[in-house]
Amino acid sequence: MATKMTPAEISTALQTVAGWEADGESAIAKAFKFEDHIEAMGFVNRVALAAEKMDHHPELTIVYNNVSIRLNTHDVGGVSAKDFELAAAIERYA
Question: What is the residue-wise DSSP string for 5-59?
Fold first, then answer.
């Protein structure tokens, strides 16, 4: 079972995933921009496969070539290590 991270733990962990930011104390988020819609959708599909494998699903917003991702762990009501594991996987696909 995941445990909710403190604001200090979140701040420290954010240093391990470039460009990700705290979205209050309940989530982390990042926006990505791609050349076109097809490239953005390819990225989203790779993220979806990684998320499914981890059984940890992000909030995704897709507008043409822009993809915004917000991660939190609903079970703990905030951010957990699972969010940073998925953020690191997402970075490999960006």
Answer: PPHHHHHHHHTTSTT-EEETTTEEEEEEE-SSHHHHHHHHHHHHHHHHHHT---E
Q: What does pTM read for this prediction?
A: 0.93
58, 69 Cβ separation under 8 angstroms: yes
The residue segments making up the domain with residue 40 are 20-93
Q: Find the largest Cα–Cα distance for the chain.
A: 39
Cβ neighbours of residue 56 under 8 Å, at least 6 residues apart?
A: 71, 73, 82, 83, 85, 86
Name the domain count of the chain: 1
Query: 58-92 pLDDT, tens per residue?
Result: 999 999 999 999 999 999 999 999 999 999 999 99
